[in-house]
Predict the 3D structure of the following.
Amino acid sequence: EAARHQESRTPAMAAAASTEGDWTVGEEAEDAQQPTALPAITTEDDAAAASISARHRTLSQDVLSKLLPPPPVSPKRTGSLLESRVCAVVCGDLGGTNSRLELFRIEDPSSVTAQQLEQVGKATPLFRNSYKNDKIDGDFTQVMHQFLEDSRLPRVELVAGCLAVAGPVANDRVTFTNLSWVIDSRHLEQEFFMPKNSMRLVNDFVANGYGVVTLGASEYEDISPRSGIQATRGAPVACVGAGTGLGETYATCSHCDDRAGSFARYDAWPSEGGHVGFAPRDSLQRGLLAHLSDKFGGRVSTERVVSGKGIVNVYEYLATQFPDDVDPKIDAKIRNETEGAALVSRSAYDNAVCAKTMDVVLDAYGAELGNAAVKWLPFGGLYIAGGIAGKNVERIRPSTSPFMLAYKDRGRVSNLLHKIPLRLVTVDDLGLRGAHYVALTVLIEQCDASALEKQTSLAAESAVEQKLVDDETAADTAVKTGADAAVAAAATLGGLETAVHALAKAVVYGSGTIAIALLATALLLANKRTAD
């Protein structure tokens, strides 16, 4: 039947059938949507064949419409999609009670430079909020989800982040002792679709170390014992802060040069300096050391004295030494209230025991600042943070205060303090600043790594190109050497044996030399035949 049908087809039908499947794409796409006109049908068989051909054409059109790419999105729609995408870094300062979070826009994550670190503390966040930890059901990921939802940003892409946390950090993981939270950076990256290794955790006081390098002149008070002390650019900086505990950190310059307009980039380092042994400076403090040693069963750290709890410890000791000056009502509140330290500080202006307590605590505080000065030589600045200093500025600032006298008492190395600026921090967002600084540093490191990889790739490509040039030069030299040998053999008419030997050498050097050597050999043979 197929053979009979093939024989019955007219030339016109054969020509029409040969066009099946020849569809044009592009300018002729609209014409391709219509099948080629069929010839006149003369027989029933031809009509059946034409019907089959038409169905094939229709199927071809359906298949083609699925294979062709969809029409492009209009420029207006494309622009709106791009505008809705917001790249940002997330920064947080997580304490035992509150979690403070901020979002900062990143215009181009692939081109972040160290100069952008200068904007830390000055840039306006896209969104910020604070949450009571005990009001959140679940772990910290619920806080993050709530924060992003509260931001009401349509499409946030977290490209990096850093959280300053109140606890020891190991391998970007922390366990909160007073909460049921375990925060792991890798888990947060997966939960919020962040790039690998883009989320960092740092101890909250390490974050303070990053934060102090962002401070401007209006964000601290210079209380140096000698006026006119200038910070040394690129020198170490240090920060000591007493509050709930006693924290210490220092930061060193990792990227710094003397070129105009260049920016010094710092790395802050953890420290447990607050847990050094308490060193009494007079007989009263020696009695305090003995009292605290009995209370805590042995060794006494400086944090047992210089901290919120330390204030209460000192008050309890002094109350036993000066019982006639104790106010029973104030004494009962100090011993029973959780904010006993704040009550001691407020009562220091009209209660002798409380006043003496603050003198002892601030004396020990100044001594520890002096220790930090000679340990780290922070010629870039020694910063005082924390609530105790901020709420007792009038007791710290005077040159004859217990704090300042203890700070300056450095014995044979006291002159070193004349080169160290002593600065009292007056802002309360050091932790958030430090987290922002670290988050930007993550992006800077990624950009630096990409640039180094590109540079290495270009160097490798250049080396390959140079090797090709060298090989080509060596080949050209070899060709010339082989050609010279072959021509010399032919010119001397030393015989066929010499020419063949030159030809064998030429094979080693390359095809160009072979051609020349063959030519020389042919000339030699022709010359020899003529001679014969």
In short: DSSP finds 19 helices and 13 strands in the chain. Residues 9-41, 69-82 have pLDDT under 50 and may be disordered.
